[in-house]
Amino acid sequence: MAATLWSEDFLGGTGRTRDQQVLTGPFAHKTGNWTIKGGVTEGKFLTRDLGRPSEPVALPTKDELAWAMNEKVYGAAPWDSTVASGFRNRLEGWMSGGDEPWCNHNRVHRWIGGHMLGGSSPDDPVFWLHHAFVDLLWDRWQHKHPKATYLPKSKLGAGDPQSGRAISLAEPMPPWNVKPSELLDHRDLYRYEA
Fold first, then answer.
1. φ, ψ for residue 127, nearest 5 deg
2. Rounded to an integer, what distance in angstroms lies between the CA atom of residue 112 and that of residue 57?
3. Cys-Cys link to 177, which of 9, 84, 112, 172 (CB 3.0-4.6 A)?
4. Closest Cα partner for 43 from 29, 32, 57?
């Protein structure tokens, strides 16, 4: 936890033991610069529990990340968290890729704790850094597997348990009415350096 990321002059540190309130850095409630107003939680201050000392969680390892990045297909039926293959599930972290469940993306949320654990996660500025990194990984996975594509390609039938939940390549995503096929190539908007 001595990393620069959690320093006083960047994201601030972990929360205090009794209520997980972040007391250091520019997003500490006492500075008045970061009040939680999202309505998802009742608290007015940012919370974190880095590493979850009471029930320790480790950050993903390079090997666990490589395990996801080496997967050659994007997803697989039945398009839910039970599938043990597919880049989507391995990166998202629904199943175990190593010694701990919740690997990769989800484990970072769990390691940070506090607001990052649920629907209020965008209230923590680290959420945006984390998801920018996930976007970078998506870009790198696409380059590593250029013949792979987003799946499912077709809308799931009405009898499929994931119908309406697993959005197909050409199906508009609610509430934005944008299809995944329109979002696969971001290179007209921005590029990552190698």
1. -55, -45
2. 9
3. 172
4. 29
Query: In this structure, is the dihedral angle defined by the CA atoms of residues 77, 136, 2 and 48, taken in order, positive or negative?
Result: negative
Contacts for 145-152 with beta carbons within 8 Å, 24 or more apart? 145/72, 145/87, 148/72, 148/73, 148/74, 148/87, 149/74, 150/74, 150/75, 150/180, 150/181, 150/184, 151/73, 151/74, 151/75, 151/76, 151/86, 152/75, 152/77, 152/79
Residue with tokens 């609610």: 174
For every one of its 194 residues, what pLDDT tens digit does the chain have, with 9 covering 90 and above?
A: 445 899 999 999 999 999 999 999 999 998 877 888 767 777 789 999 999 999 998 999 999 999 999 999 999 999 988 888 899 999 987 665 555 566 799 999 999 999 999 888 999 999 999 999 999 999 999 999 999 999 999 999 999 999 989 999 999 998 999 999 999 988 889 998 87
Rounded to two decimals, the pTM is: 0.88
Beta strands in 28-187 (DSSP E): none
Distance (Å, whole) CA 113 – CA 128: 15
CB-based burial, 103-123: b 16+ in 10 Å, e otherwise: bbbebbbbbbbbbbbeebbeb
